[in-house]
Amino acid sequence: MSETANQIRARFSEMGIKVSASEIDKRLGVLEKFKVPPEEARRSVVTYFLKEHNVPRGEFYKNESNTPDARVADIKQDGKWVNLKVRVVQLWEKNHDSISQVGLVGDETGTIKFTKWASAGLPDVEEGKTYEFRNVVTSEYQGRFQVTLNRTSAITELALDIEVGSTQTEFSGAIVDIQSGSGLIKRCPECNRALVKGVCGEHGKVEGSYDLRIKAVIDNGSLVQDALMNREVTEKLTGITLDKAREIATESLDPSIVTETIRTLLVGRYYTVRGRKLDTTLLVETIEPVPAVLDEDIAALMAEAEVA
């Protein structure tokens, strides 16, 4: 009999509920065969027996202290359950009713994306405030980690001032490319990932919801910076709203026309972007055009150089 099965049986026994350890072990074994992470399998089995005996989740977990406290920089594995104390850095546009909130949180060691499912029934968080996230599960996609809050999670506001490790970054240069995946896109209703030809890498072919974004490459002559602009920033910069983008795509029968329109508007122009770095990508919060250098200014600079 596994140690996990004995722990679950013992906890139910403390609550006056008799559950067979062999039945627990059997269900854990089935999930193990499907490569379900151990901690996620444990919670799945616990949830099954809670429903069987009509016991609220809070009753089972209220005296547990198995979930470790962690910092953002400690999150390096998929499928781990942790507690975090974080400040909400940024809230993003949600793209499906199944998602309650999505955005960026951080602590002294860095930042990480979070997703709170609507089915979790948890209170909303606010930008700039600090919270403890309990029993959140980690996941990894294309080398980047995120945390998810579900029914077993909890949110508590804290009277703490956490200095987020990822500081504001500013970069100025010319937009030299608008990358594939920009413009009018569709996102998976389950995980919010951008679809590729109507397919989500996690959930397969789905009916996605529309979104608007820009994946730009900015060059200052010495360095190149990848920049990601969400719907709000994209609409403000280009003047193209999500509804307008859908209208353009419908009239032309080609969504890529939206990308080409954005490319024509932006490539070759100089901007200053500000935001937070997530790995190698700058998540743009504000973008401003760099004032044009007039011919007379160039002439004056050249004359000054000659005198020198």
Summary?
This protein is α+β, with helices and mostly antiparallel strands and 308 residues long. The chain has helices at residues 3-14, 21-33, 38-52, 57-61, 231-238, 242-252, 256-266, 295-307; strands at residues 69-70, 81-91, 99-107, 110-117, 130-141, 144-149, 154-158, 168-178, 183-187, 199-200, 204-205, 209-219, 224-229, 270-278, 281-289.
Task: Produce the secondary structure layout.
Layout: H1 3-14, H2 21-33, H3 38-52, H4 57-61, E1 69-70, E2 81-91, E3 99-107, E4 110-117, E5 130-141, E6 144-149, E7 154-158, E8 168-178, E9 183-187, E10 199-200, E11 204-205, E12 209-219, E13 224-229, H5 231-238, H6 242-252, H7 256-266, E14 270-278, E15 281-289, H8 295-307
Parallel strand pairs: 1-2, 4-6, 13-15
Antiparallel strand pairs: 2-3, 2-5, 3-4, 5-6, 5-7, 8-12, 8-14, 9-12, 10-11, 12-13, 14-15
Helix pairs in contact: 1-2, 2-3
Describe it.
By secondary structure, the chain is of the alpha+beta class. The chain contains 8 helices and 15 strands. It has 3 domains: 3-61, no CATH class; 69-158, OB fold (Dihydrolipoamide Acetyltransferase, E2P) (Beta Barrel), CATH 2.40.50.140; 168-289, OB fold (Dihydrolipoamide Acetyltransferase, E2P). 29% of the residues lie in helices and 35% in strands. The protein has a 5-stranded mixed beta barrel.
Would you list the SSEs in sequence order as H and E? Answer: HHHHEEEEEEEEEEEEEHHHEEH
Let me know the CATH homologous superfamily of the largest domain. Answer: Nucleic acid-binding proteins
How far do the termini sit from each other?
85 Å
Question: Mind describing the biggest β-sheet?
Answer: 5 strands, mixed, barrel
Helix segment count? 8
Number of domains: 3
State which percent range the strand residues make up. 35-45%
CATH topology description of the largest domain: OB fold (Dihydrolipoamide Acetyltransferase, E2P)
Strand order of the largest sheet: 2-3-4-6-5
The first-level CATH class name of the largest domain: Mainly Beta
- Rg (CA only): 24 Å
Class of secondary structure makeup: alpha+beta
Q: Specify the helix fraction band.
A: 25-40%
Envelope shape? elongated
Mean pLDDT: 86
Structure summary, number of beta strands: 15
